[in-house]
Specification:
The protein has about 575 residues and is of the alpha+beta class. The chain has 11 helices and 25 strands.
Length: about 575
């Protein structure tokens, strides 16, 4: 009864551990195991329960197929009779409205089955196979899903995902909700518990129970459909006007929970004094202007919220491209993985959507425009067996004289090449680079030592740094997944890799001198760079052969940018 696999009459199933003849955990409220419904469906263990009913694992005795069956049994309005099978509505004075609510809810339960049956071809909704009435209530027969809820998945991922991972995971849910809303049905109970991730990595929306009660007049019926922290304010009112915007709030709350690991404060508390913390204040990286979009989706007042899921999804898609900074994120798995399958981690978004697509097409295909990056291991591979530290300098610092770069290993000082400024109309943003090792600043470095780079700039600007190793591989070292913001203010000092980074740059070969390049622009150029430079930081080499090509690519976007190069001497001990 636990997995619907024959275990040869054993008292304990060797496959799932289910104990035969063990009492149901919910006592008399649940159907006894091995109950047969409609002369066809064998009832097994409990899959889940909520305010409106109970879902069981079942077995179709005719088709020999595992299924899930949901029984309509709204808590507070009905219970089970002494035989443990029949559902009975409360008749006492305390529950005077129970009969009306139960009948209305049962009608909505059937309506839900009919509506969901129209979506049997939709990959985002569980397939409805049958509906029947017996035992004084109704039963909805659905395909059985093997997997876990979003809440369970998040727990396995350390409690939260990166924003891009969460958006990628929830995008199918948004697409599904658009279909559901078009059909005139709202879910009204979206939460991490009602989003299901199957073992074959499909994301499905489950449990449309709250939708059945959306139109009831009863305050008691409204009270049971609330999911604290995920329900918007209109669900707290007896006559609260609900619709697609209700699902917008709940989905935004689910997205918030997915990226922060925290449930938003309840809507009524936010009406009095809003203590909702923006994700960025909790240490969550939010690309572009997505934080503002997310907070608008979580607006307590309906008129300030997105009215449709489509509008919310489009706004998120555009906000990820409307970025003032390059955002990189720590790697985490996105979905349930199959054996031997390695899932990628997100890095860059392409700058532009295909020109002739309409908004709906852009929404559904947005995930295909994400670029992915390999996960960073504890030991960084060959390309970054090393660490850099760059200073882009302020006017108060002593300027370093321009020196020509010499291709020789006998250089006894780090040399800084002055910037090529094509447009004389723009004030040069001066850069100062200082190289350090763990034993301090030194003009000569040895194989095996780690390099730190300190950088300062004389005016506000966007900083980009690249490193060419001894094997001529080039990687972007700033901004990176540990330092997300490329924008620096005048005189601001940054360290590369920095105190919180988990990578290093180690000199590994004395046969060829490595080189660092830092560029600074008044403009954010990250998303405008050619595809060859839009690659992962740290581990992946960029798609160019030399630092000269990097400079040319940046100069093509901003003639007035400043750059400096430094080539330290590396010797064997």
């Amino acid at each position: 009864m636990g997995c619907m696999i024959d275990h040869g009459g054993a008292l304990v199933c060797p496959r799932c551990g289910y104990k035969e003849k063990s009492p149901a955990s919910g006592g008399k409220l649940f159907l006894p195991p091995r109950t047969v419904l409609n002369e066809r469906y064998l009832i097994g263990r409990i899959l889940g329960e909520g305010g409106f009913g109970i879902t069981y694992l079942a077995y179709d005795l005719i088709l020999a197929l595992k299924l899930a069956i949901k029984e309509f049994l709204p808590r507070g309005f009905a219970t089970r009779t002494a035989d443990g099978i029949i559902v009975s509505v409360y008749q006492d004075a305390v529950h005077s409205e129970a009969q009306q609510v139960f009948v209305h809810g049962l009608e909505k339960f059937l309506d839900e089955a009919r509506i969901l049956a129209r979506f049997n071809e939709s990959p985002g909704i569980v397939t409805v196979r049958d509906f029947f009435a017996t035992n004084g209530t109704g039963y909805l027969v659905m395909s059985y899903l093997d997997g876990m809820t979003l809440r369970q998945h998040l727990a396995l991922q350390g409690g939260q995902l990166t924003f891009l991972q969460a958006f990628e995971l929830l995008s199918p849910v948004m697409d599904t909700l658009q279909e559901v809303h078009t059909a005139g049905l709202a879910h009204r109970d979206i939460s991490p518990d009602n989003i299901y991730i199957t073992c074959d990595q499909q994301v499905k929306l489950i449990d449309f129970g709250a939708a059945r009660f959306a139109l009831t007049e009863s305050s008691r019926s409204l009270s049971v459909i609330l999911k604290r922290g995920f329900a918007p304010m209109e669900q707290y009112y007896t006559h609260g006007r609900q619709g697609p915007w209700t699902d917008v709030y709940a989905l935004a709350a689910t997205l918030y929970y997915s990226v922060t690991g925290q449930t938003p404060p309840e809507a009524p508390a936010r009406m009095q004094e809003d203590h909702l913390q923006p994700p960025s204040t909790l240490g969550t990286g939010m690309p572009g202007t997505t934080e503002a979009v997310l907070l608008k989706g979580l607006a307590v007042q309906v008129e300030l919220r997105y009215r449709t899921i489509k509008a919310f999804q489009q706004a998120l898609s555009r906000a990820m491209l409307d970025t003032d900074q390059i955002q990189l994120f720590p790697a985490r798995p996105v979905m349930l993985t199959q054996p031997g399958k390695r899932l990628p981690d997100p890095l860059f978004l392409d700058e532009e959507a295909p020109p002739e697509k309409n908004p709906q097409e852009i929404d559904s295909s947005f995930s295909n425009r994400l670029r992915w990056l390999k996960r960073l291991g504890i030991a960084v591979p060959v390309l970054l067996v090393a660490t850099l530290l760059t200073i882009l300098h302020s006017p108060s610092l002593p300027t370093t004289p321009s020196l020509p770069v010499k291709d020789t290993l006998s250089i006894q000082e780090p040399l800084v090449e002055s910037a090529a400024v094509i447009s004389s109309a723009t004030v040069i943003n001066k850069i100062f680079i200082q190289l350090d090792t763990p034993r301090g600043t030194n003009p000569v470095y040895y194989v095996g030592e780690r390099l730190d780079l300190m950088v300062q700039i004389s005016d506000n600007g966007y900083l980009y740094c690249y490193y060419r190793d001894e094997r001529s591989k080039i990687a972007r070292i700033y901004p990176n997944r540990y330092a997300l913001d490329s924008y620096l203010t005048a005189g601001q000092r940054i360290d590369i890799p920095g105190p919180n980074a988990s990578f290093s740059i180690e000199f590994s070969d004395a046969n060829q001198s490595p080189e660092a390049l830092c560029l600074v622009s008044k403009h954010n150029l990250g998303m405008k760079l050619p595809t060859s430079l839009k690659v992962a930081d740290l581990e992946e080499p960029v798609g160019v052969a030399s630092l000269e090509e990097v400079i040319q690519a940046f100069q093509a976007l901003d003639e007035s940018l400043t750059y400096q190069r430094v080539r330290p001497a590396v010797l064997k001990r």
